[in-house]
Please model this.
Amino acid sequence: MANINLRVNGKAHTVDVDPATPLLYVLRNDLDLQGPRFGCGLGQCGACTVIIKGEAVRSCIRPISTVQGAEITTLEGLSQNGKLHPLQQAWIDEQVPACGFCQNGQIMTAKALLDKTPAPTDAQIRQGMANTLCRCMTYYRIQAAIKRASKTVSTASNESGSEVIA
Amino acid sequence: MTASRRDFIKTSGFLVVGIGVAGDLSFAQGPGAGPYPDVDFRQLDSWIVIRQDNTATFFVGKTDLGQGTGTAFRQIMADELDMPYDKTACVMGNTDVTVDQGGSGGSDALQTDGYPMRRVAAEARRVLLEMASARLGVPVAQLVVSDSVVSVAADPSKKVSYGELIGGKRFNVTLTGNNINATTGVAKLKDVQQFKIVGTSPQRYDIPAKVDGSLKWAVDAKVPGMVHARNVKPAFAGAKLVSIDESSVKGVPGLIKVVSKGNYVAVVCEREEQAIQAARQLKVTWQKPAAAPFPASDDLFTFMRRAELTSSAPPIVVGNLDASIKGAAKVLEADYEIPFQGHTSIGPAHAMADPSNDQLTIYSNDMKSYGLRDGVAEFLKIPRDRVRVVWMEGPQAYGRTAADDAGFEAAFLAKEIGRPVRIQWMRNEETAWDTKGPAFAVKVRGGLDAQGNLVAFDYDARSADFNHLGYNEHDTVLISQLMGNRRAMPARGSAAMPDDKYGIPSRRMAASVVSLPLIWETPLRTGNLRDPNGPQATFASESFIDELAAAANADPLEFRLKLLNASEEDSGFKRARSIAALKAAAEAFKWDPRPSPKRVSSGEILTGRGVAYTFRSQTVVAQMAEVEVNRRTGRVWVKRIVVAHDCGLVINPETLRRVVEAGALYGLSRALYEEVRFDTEKVTSVDWASSPTLTHTDTPESLEVLIVNGDPNPKRPDLPHYGAGETMIKPMMALIGNAIFDATGVRLRRVPFRSARVLAALKSGNV
Model:
């Protein structure tokens, strides 16, 4: 066991765990966050996805010792000042989830995708989301929601005068 | 509101706690309180609570697996009650708070269980109108209701709200009915034309908390003092535990106990990652069974065709098959093969059990929470009213999933350790050991006369459904089997027969079960997989109908319509509705009538289209698809799907569309990818690499859902609301196989259509 310092959704935490512990279990069991979920423990399905340094990271295979000090964002940290992230709003507008268990990974992977490619093509969405699995098969609506959110994001950035990537 | 009103409150963030309806009126105190007698379904107060602020909560004994049934229940009940939808809430599936409607299953939430819900809501409205009549001094016939307010038709200023009439009080109305499905008051149901909320699409109330991370799922259930467990499964199917070397986990921090009984082994630790480590590290010696538990998956169908039948259903016979075959101008025969397929839930099985106060509270996403309560009580010999199940949302629990097993394991371990225990299966466990949909080997024969009319159809299915598990059975859940419990006879499943309304002069449908060598403690244990056995039977029958159409040089749609027109009418207007659905699909798809296959083109991408149809219970589905087959790689991409869907009265069209879309893609996943692989010792499909599933890159370019009402009297006031959870899965294997045949001229009679299989078939067909 060792003391590990973490920054999650803007807050600092110290936990006393084995440094090899996958980040997922600390987020869920020590910090009481429930957005990231265990799906495979192998980095194959994406249900545990969090964002670290702009990258969608599979927290089920990321040892806690390797994320010390890095800013970690979970699903709970996406909304700002009580306002849902455009992706979350698009997920509601498109009524995306069925059971919803995988949707943490879908939303967080889409967030990392849109941050890098604000106006993705259909092919880029499919490719970018390829390894994030949904067994209820809500893929069709997930893709629609990403497109919808991408329009909101580009409209918002247009209004604020920043560059729009077409 | 008085303390005597039954209500539910939220405590600890996620515990849904009830107040006894019988009037003892003490607040339940969360885990440990009790006992938990059954909720009396013959009391109106068990179903509906209306408060002074004109809000209502409906208590129903169902569970919502993410298909929006909870939203639909609110719609139908609010509509019968004349309450605004957004003033209602719904509590589901908590055994001590809600009446026992059996949880979910069979896609009957609306088809069956929706009716008692409507009747009790209508009865509540009737009682409220009588109360209003007394209060306002006006006969009921002169009253109108709108948005929970009863007013005098001739003088709307005279009014009283539901909240004023009943808020804070009990209805004290006794209902009648021999069983819960028959529950009724004396009020009549509304004509469906009077509905205002039914037929609209309020958004699902469960979705916001699923996208902002605030929902407490069954995986999140947590109480003070809770510890974590992991199973250690037998290394080989049918293996016997010889010894456990506990010294192998001595150094694991947080280890509480290694638990074993018979061949069941688990470790319990303070922390989750410790339990995972201990389960990996624990040295267990297993003895392989003397004989191989099953043939390797590559040899499965040879084995099944040679095996002795363990049981057979009486065949359904129409006409004289042998004579019709003998007299036919052309006879076709084919063998279809469908492997075992797993649930492979996105989230492995899990549950948490709290044994505080000599009782048991189980937090579970099992779709049949009531069955879980009953089964655990029997398994652990605890009085039934000392056990309760708190149902919470969970991953993809359609059917008899391993969620059943995890509930029993958590309960057993909690009792063993004397502390709250949370268990979760690992991915390899889930994929290898969850219950399977049985493999099918189907022989079909058909005869065409000289004019190309289908005169004989012979369907003979064998399924490896030799120990079909029911739900939450104390003597068949995996932990019970591993502990050595045995039924005298395993429950035989069935080899389903196709569901269609084709009029064929001579027809025989036979279904038998064959057994693999290992019957108990096998990872190839079977149970209801979403649309149990429907895709298997329909793959054979709807593919073979296409083969017969091709042999008759007929358009496959015309061929089907002709067979439907030759059929006799039946209950539920299935024949008429089948025709309507096929025609609706054809119009939207712009079906081009011609025989299949089309002339195979010379390019790398071969395109084709297909059709398939079925019904399930009372719901009719016709599907058309356009596929692209890559001649070089064998990859099949389904570019476009049209689903014509008739489930009668639609409660929430937007949710229905999504349920049908997702279900169709799930059927596509099973058609293209899903198969349980095994060698002669164990299942070798253990993760998402060895057990592939449909991904984002497979999504069709277009997926159109047509909501069809093919009832011959579409405006009838009692138009039923049929189930919509599974039918669209059923024809998908045949649909894709038919489209591949149209594109390539090659008939695939074995699913899944993974690239390697398709490529090999194209090569052997010289395409």
